[in-house]
Design goal:
Radius of gyration: 19 Å
Bound molecules: NADP nicotinamide-adenine-dinucleotide phosphate
CATH class of the largest domain: Alpha Beta
CATH architecture of the largest domain: Alpha-Beta Complex
Distance between the termini: 14 Å
Number of domains: 2
Largest sheet: 6 strands, mixed
CATH topology of the largest domain: Quinone Oxidoreductase, Chain A, domain 1
Shape: globular
Length: about 300
């Protein structure tokens, strides 16, 4: 039987364990994927914790993880754009999970993996990089305008910085001092977060910024939100309510195979590096999730599956 890393009930990391599970069967519109790599995201522990129960309804034990790259082993009914043997990346189907030897992927949220993109890079794209793509495009900025990415040093932030730079935007990003070099390597200006962060931005840009893509929320967004000249251009993937306080709202996710294909092509063309900074073997999946759960991981963490 294939192995999967599950949470047995809603709660903390103590609810996580490896289990032998039945081979998943693809339903209509689904792909059975032989997983080669699985991306790790903050949503994974938030789902385990039960914080997202109203949007992601699960009946534990449930396999952890929401994005994978691998090889299609079977296709469900009504799937005509993928075949057995295709190398793909995608978001997992409802009720399925990515930290597993086999996962179900929603065909409409999948794309073929360009051959020059590694499985580990591909697995980092369906959630983080696609969210970055959606958020940056939603802001609809013109070349030369200024975007502040709040929380630029994580999975979504590093992708957002590069996508925005590719569109000709000037990018500033808040991160801890330890990530200054990483941020500058993305072509963005590093601003240390913490007390005085808004003053530090105003020293560089007295009139503030054109838009904010927030990836942290709460007090962190409150500290910088007023820097946006147009409050409707404050969007958050982490805390839409806090963005709404400034007149903005949530990053609207497309969850589309087209967006995923576009993002994968940026990687294939060398225009986007998802910054997979840590590839963790499957048998240490718990450590991979703990690194992201710390809230201070660097770029993306990906689990490699044998
Ligand atoms: N709605 C969606 O579809 C969607 C999709 C993807 C992600 N998200 C959400 O978006 C958020 C970011 O996701 P992610 O994958 O990028 O997370 P991540 O990889 O865990 O990165 C989070 C980053 O935030 C930084 N950070 C922590 N506290 C900060 C602060 N006060 N100010 C500035 N930066 C701070 C951390 O780095 P340092 O502290 O070391 O600088 C870390 O690099 C999460 O809340 C996630 O759940 C939502």
């Amino acid at each position: 039987m294939p192995q999967a890393y599950v949470f047995t009930e809603y709660g903390g990391p103590e609810t996580q364990e490896f289990r032998d599970v039945d081979m998943p069967t693809p339903g209509p519109g689904e792909l059975l994927v032989d997983v080669r790599a699985a991306g790790v995201n903050p949503a994974d522990w938030k789902i385990r914790q039960g914080y997202l129960r109203e949007v992601v309804a699960l009946d534990p034990p449930a396999v952890i993880g929401s994005e994978v790259a691998g090889v299609v082993r079977a296709v469900g009914k009504d799937v005509d754009s993928f075949s057995v043997g295709d190398e793909v990346l995608g978001g997992v189907a409802p009720g399925s999970g990515g930290y597993a030897e086999y996962a179900l992927v929603t065909a409409e949220q999948a794309a073929k993996k360009p051959t020059q993109v590694s499985y580990t890079d591909a697995a980092a794209l369906p959630v983080a990089a696609a969210t970055a793509y959606d958020g940056v495009h939603q802001l609809d900025l013109q070349p030369g305008q200024v975007l502040l990415v709040n929380g630029i040093g994580g999975g979504v932030g590093v992708a957002a910085a590069q996508i925005a730079r590719h569109l000709g935007l000037t990018v500033l990003g808040t991160a801890s001092p330890a990530k200054a070099e990483l941020v500058e390597s993305l072509g963005a200006v590093h601003v240390a977060y913490g007390p005085g962060v808004a003053d530090r931005v105003r020293q560089l840009l007295p009139d503030g910024v054109d838009a904010i893509l927030d990836l942290v929320g709460g007090e962190s967004l409150q500290a910088v939100g007023a820097l946006a000249r147009d409050g409707s251009k404050v969007v958050s993937a982490a805390d839409p309510g806090a963005a709404a306080d400034f007149g903005g709202g949530a990053v609207q996710r497309a969850y589309s195979g087209e967006v995923l294909a576009a993002v994968a092509q940026l990687v294939a063309d060398g225009k986007l590096d998802p910054h997979v900074e840590d590839v963790v073997p499957f048998d240490r999946a718990g450590e991979a999730l703990a690194a992201v759960e710390s809230g201070h991981s660097r770029g993306k963490v990906v689990i490699s599956v044998p």
